Amino acid sequence: MDFLAITTPLLSTLWFLIPLIIVFNLFRSAWFKGVVGEFIVNMLLQYKLDQDIYHLFKNVTLPTENDSTQIDHIIVSVFGVFVIETKNMRGRIYGKPNDPMWTQQIYNHKNKFQNPLRQNYKHIKTLQKLLQLSEPQLHSVIAFIGDSEFKAHPPPNVTQGIGLLRHIKAHKDFRILPKDKERIISAIENGRLSESLQTNRQHAKHVKDIIAGKKELNLCPKCGNKMVMRHTKSGHYKSRQFWGCASFPTCRTVIPFIE
């Protein structure tokens, strides 16, 4: 039996499947979900808000003292500057405003992610410094896109779907003078880093360095607080060392100590 006659059709089929596998994994990736989420929010804001009143920026990367920070969307209006962090997620969302980490649950699978309110706080402070504005002139907004639901009632600035528009339009108090609005728009245009592949790569590297740094700090994988060295006080493993969460008994995360 000719070996090539048998293997050639099989190899042809496998080569056909490889691109499909790559595309399938791409669609499931966090990066692709983020891009889709930002696109949906961008379309929502661009076509449902009066552009004469609200000036929209998308994907703004600003330099910071350490490196850079990337903001999904900024809206400049006389009602204030809205700083929007987008999350394209599904499942149940658990988290309180002051929690370092929030939880996404899909069936029995749980995934921890950084509290987006804390994440957006850095964006707020960077813009505040750049634009020379007071805190009441900036609005932090979290926009969840996707089939997600909150276990507890979220704060007003954590929105879902069309609720993002309702939240923005609910602000009717004048916070910025019309002449200052133009100055702010110009400051963002001049202060942002150019949109390029190199800028995105540099920012992605900065984020990875931050994550690696947090791992080196030995933070709790459940709540984000510091892990401290402890030892068992009784039993067969008395005096054995282990890592325990500093927020015990609120968080009971334990990690074995490996010498």
Question: Which properties best describe this structure?
Answer:
259 residues; alpha/beta; five-stranded mixed β-sheet; 6 helices; 39% helix
Most strands sheet:
5 strands, mixed
**SSE run:** HHEEEEEEHEEEHHHEEE
DSSP helical segment count: 6
Query: Radius of gyration, Cα only, in angstroms?
Result: 23 Å
Q: How do the strands of the widest beta sheet line up side by side?
A: 1-2-3-7-9
Helix content: 25-40%
**How far apart lie the N and C ends?**
58 Å
Overall tally of structural domains: 2
Strand content: 25-35%
Low-confidence stretches: none
Average pLDDT, to the nearest integer? 79
Based on helices, strands and strand pairing, what is the structural class?
alpha/beta
DSSP E strands, number: 12
Dominant shape: elongated
Explain the overall architecture:
The chain folds into 2 domains: 191 residues, no CATH class; 30 residues, no CATH class. 39% of the residues lie in helices and 27% in strands. It is built from 6 helices and 12 strands. It is an alpha/beta fold and 259 residues long. A 5-stranded mixed sheet has the order 1-2-3-7-9, sandwiched between helices. The mean pLDDT is 79. It is elongated and about 70 Å long.
